[in-house]
Amino acid sequence: MAFGSKNKGGDIEGDMTPMIDCVFLLLIFFMLISEITQADLEQMKLPEASMAKADEKPPKDRLVVNIVKQEPNDPNVRDGLVKIKGKPYGLGSRELIDRLTIEADIERGDRGISKRPLLIRCDRRVQFLYFQQILMLCANPNLNIKMSKIQIAIAKDRDDG
Amino acid sequence: MGVVQDMMAEEAKTDMTPMIDVVFLLLIFFMCMKFKSYEKKLDADLPEDEGLSISTPTPVQQLRIGLNLLAGESDKIQILPDPLNEYFKPIQWREGAAGKREMFKELEEQIRRGFTYIGDKIEVAPGERVPFDYVALTLDAIHKSQDRVPDADKKRITFKAAPPGGG
Fold first, then answer.
1. Closest to A34 (Cβ–Cβ): which among B34, B127, B131?
2. Would you put residue B155 in left (φ > 0), alpha (ψ -120 to 50) or beta?
3. To probe the interface with B, which of A43, A118, A120, A127 has the most B CB atoms within 10 Å?
4. Which end of chain B is more exposed for a tag (fewer CB within 10 A), N or C?
5. How far does the CA of residue B52 sit from the closest CA of chain A (Å)?
6. CB distance B45–A150 less than 8 Å?
C-alpha cells in the first residue's frame, strides 16, 4: 500500500535539457562539417553542357582551382580571380606557380608527371584567358607542375532531378 | 470525496517549450544546410609528354574552331572554323538564348557531317577575352557530334593558345 500511494502521487517528468544540448551540438557539428567540405568550392555560375558526366565519386586527392568572376570598377582591370582553398592568387604569379608545384608534388608518377587530378571550376562569364593560363602552367615543360589529368566543372542540369 | 478532489486538482500538464525549442533548432538546421548537389565535369586530359604544342596545323586534315568576339562587344561571338577547311562554314552571332543554342547546334551538325574528313584531333582556339561559357558549349558540341558518329574513332581535343590581347 505504501508503494501504491507513492506512485499515484508522483508525476513522471522528463528533463529535456540534455536533449536540447545534444541537438545544439549536432547542429554546430553539421554546420562546421558542411563549411569544411565546401571550402574548396567557391560560389560561381558554372557553364552548362549536356554531355558532361556526373561527378559522383570525386577523387579524394583532387585539387580544385576556382576561377571566380569579379566586377572591377576599372574596365582595364581583368575580371577574374584564381582561388585555391579560399586563397586568392594573381594570374601567373610566383605564388600561384609555387602553390601548384607543391600540390602537384604530393603524388608524382613516371617522368615526374603528377598523378593528382585537377578540377578547374571556371565561372561561365570569366574570360578564357584565365583557363588558358592555368592549362599553360600545368603543361609548361619548364615548370615542375606537370599536371595532366584535367577536369572542367560543369553545372548540374536544371532538369536533371 | 477527498480523493476525487485531489484527482481533479492534478490536471495533466504538458510543457511545450522543449518541443518548440527542438522544432526551431531543426528549422534553423535545415535552413542553414546546403543540400549537396553534385556538379558535372568534362574530362580534358593534357598530353603527358608533349608540353606546349609547337606543331604546325595541317590544313583540311585538322579542324580548328576559332571563337572570336565581335568588334566592340564583350559577350557576342562568331564561330570561325579553319578557313582552309572546305567542309566547315563560319557561324555568325545570333541574339537570345535560342539563338545561342542554334549556333552551337549548327556547329555540332557541321562537325558531324565533316567528321570523317577531320584528322585525329580537333583544335579549339578561343580568343583571350571570350567568355568561358562559349568554350564549354563548343566542347559540348564536339562531344555531341562524336556521340552521333558511334563507329568513328574519337578525336583528341586540344586548345590553341590565343595571341595576347586577342578577342
1. B34
2. beta
3. A127
4. N
5. 6
6. yes
**B40, A53: Cβ pair inside 8 Å?**
yes
Give B132→chain A minimum CA distance, Å.
5
Q: What is the pTM of this model?
A: 0.68
Torsions phi, psi of B65, nearest 5? -105, 110
Contact assignment for A113 to B52 by CB distance below 8 Å:
no
A9-50 pLDDT tens trace: 567 777 778 888 888 888 888 877 766 666 778 888 899 888
Q: What is the ipTM of this complex?
A: 0.71
CA pair distance A65, A63, nearest whole angstrom: 7
- Beta carbons of B142 and B157 less than 8 angstroms apart: yes
**Is A5 in the B-facing interface, judged by CB distances under 8 Å?**
no
Q: Give per-residue pLDDT as tens, A56-75.
A: 888 888 899 999 988 766 66
Residue A127 and residue A70: Cα distance in Å, rounded? 11
Query: Hunting for cell 557541321 — which residue is that?
Result: B110
Instruction: Please report the pLDDT score of residue A28 as a whole number.
Output: 81
What's the pLDDT at B40?
75
pLDDT score, position B145: 87
Give dist(CA A139, CA A147) in Å, integer.
7
State which residue of chain A sits closest to B161, comparing Cα positions: A132
